[in-house]
Amino acid sequence: MSKFAKFMKANKTVKENEMHPVTKSLCDENGKPLEWEFKHITSKENENIRESCTVEVPVKGKPNMYRPKMKTSLYIQKMIAASVVTPDLYDAELQDSYGVKTPEDLLLEMVDDPGEYNDLAVYVQRFQGFNESFEDKVEEAKN
Prior knowledge:
6 helices, single chain, two-stranded antiparallel sheet
């Protein structure tokens, strides 16, 4: 048996998808808000999203020097879009019905109430594990 047996992929916990109501403006026949399905994204997917939302900006007073700046709102939009399983934000028919061409624009059209969108952003960030530090999680596991 390998000294790393406990670390093998077969021992890794699979993160389950979750259902969550997002907006009161999309309801079923009984008036109950539709639940959307969310999946966990990987660290690699998150890094790709973060990288795609980062631009180089010039440093004032220092010619030819640049620093990275993340477009936070775009990052949140892309992270939410990558997390949504249902509805399929990449579906052309759904995008066409709202007159948009990207999953992020569709998301903003479907959840057009700023308070609901903010609640969604908070929910997805927590769902993706941005709610507590790694040290907090280690301490909780110890108890």
